[in-house]
What does this fold into?
Amino acid sequence: MFAFIIRRLLQIIPVIIGVTIATFFLTWLIPGDPTNVLLGPGASEESRERLRDSLGLDQSLVTQYLIYMGNLLTGDLGQSISFSSPVSEVLFRRMGNTALLAGAAIFVASVAGIAAGTWAALRPGSFRDRGLTIVVLFLNSMPSFWLGLVLILIFGLHLRVLPVSGMPDPQSGLLTLLAHMALPTITLAAWSLAAIARMTRSAVLEVINNDYVRTARSRGVSEARIVLFHALPNAIPAVLTVIGIQMGFLFSGAVLTETVFSWPGVGLAMFQAISSRDIPLIQGGILMLALIFVLINLIVDVLYVYFNPKIRLN
Amino acid sequence: MTGKTQMTHPAQPVEPILSVDGLSVSYGSARQPLNVVKDVSFDVAPGQVLGIVGESGSGKSQTVLAVLQLLAEGGRISGGQVRFEGAELQSLSQRRMRKVRGQGIALISQDALSSLNPSMKIGRQMAEPLIAYDGLSASAARKRCTELLDLVGIPAPAHRLESYPHELSGGMRQRVLIAMAISRNPRVLIADEPTTALDVTIQAQIINLIDDLRKELGMALVLITHDLGVVAGIADRISVMYAGRIVETATTDQIFAASRHPYTRALLSSIPKPDQPRGERLKPIPGLPVDPREDVRGCAFNPRCTHALASCTESLPAMIAAEDDGQHLFRCPVDPFRLAEAEGPRARLQGNGGMS
It folds into this structure.
């Protein structure tokens, strides 16, 4: 198991190189002169030249990339233009807020999704099974920002029961924090919940007719135990894969949700970076999201091995 | 084998522990049902061994599942009843039926690999109902499971409790299934093709093991198989099924010495004999088993039967008693045994194959 984790961690290196190449050259493709953004359109050609020189923009693209990678190795992600502080600092400060929101969302989506999917699978073709299919379709076809706005309208404007914007400072207590988290969490969780419920349903349906379930039944084991100890553990690997993928989506989905609810996380910072052409921040943000994605996949793979003892042999 | 009949005292009827009466099982809609088991009846007395023999698709396994009220989605008991210790199983609540399963009637299913939960250690699977329902502590259940594995002949049983099913050999997995089936001291053990997935040498070991355990624990045994040779040594009675129906039922000796149904006789003559001359081919039954979707009029075996009369294609032959004691029943108007008797000793020997 330990060797497996080390091997998987080493595999992250080429992924990171690939991601940096892609983001670096994609941001370079964005039209317009960066000095325009930094100095404004009225700046003199002389000052532009000086800026290009100091930022290394006059070097060739490959040299620029190598400089960027060199800085990256020392932990230097560059200077954020719009926040006027180091990119790593901007991201680091906000990472916790995003993780809090994404963690809450994946928790809600997993628990509710697995429960709903299992519940539907126990009576395939029934009223509740078809009901779930409709809800899943509904949640899947809804853009998250739209859902966020609708929730703001209902709970914030009409019912006036939940706060709709921002994050309270730590002194105001857990309850206030949870109240602020409620709507963004639901918004962020909706899509993943649908995907997890759908996968759980089909995975449970696939294992519930297996011979070993019949063996357990023939020994007098109750349906509740059969679902909990025989069906779900064998269905969970497939569901875990989906949860892993969804967690990756959650971090990118956070861009929209955090913007709608003004949640001070990485997503909101990324949105601001994109609107103000803060290229170092965009690159740093994408790199961090990619890293999180890869790490989550690693965790999923480890859990996968835990749930499927047959993999352990190889 | 000849001593068998005397041992079971067929003349003295014992109160059956498991009694199946006119059982029918159907799948699909009520308007277009697929009848896989038709009017099947049998009784098993405590300690008795009943062999149910038939080729695949003859409804043997569906009969077993119906007895345990474990038919797959879409299947239902469309007629008849199953009684266990006097209680009619269809009318039991889910809760009471769960008590019957495992404690009253236990099942050994055929494919041991797919019948064990791949993600649960052997020990945990075995112990689950013991801890959850029989009130054993974790350590007591562990001790019991070790004893059970030892009883079924698994070496280093305590160590094996920590194994996953895929880490065991096919024979060992089958032994684990047997240990699981007897773990709650059932009164009736149903073994559904317990040796199909195994090597011939292991097959005999497993069958002997099941029979030894039956004697030791005083259980009744229903042994389902497609192979008459498997039940020959241990069954008191044999019921032969064809296309969802019992076509002949008799004591084991009667089946091997004087079977009356053409299908039973064909099965017997397809068993390889040790004294068979080298190079002589085995005798297969001509034709193919009936597709349950097509409803053959009359006797389902008539398309493959060498004795078929015109009446066989029109109406289902009634069950006839071969002797006055009512122990030997068969469903054929021709009675090829009588026919063979009349033709002389050579023909008689052909139907006598399994005795050698």
Q: What stands out?
A: Residues 4 and 10 of chain A are 10 Å apart (CA to CA). Residues 19-76 of chain A form one domain. Chain A is about 75% helix and 0% strand.
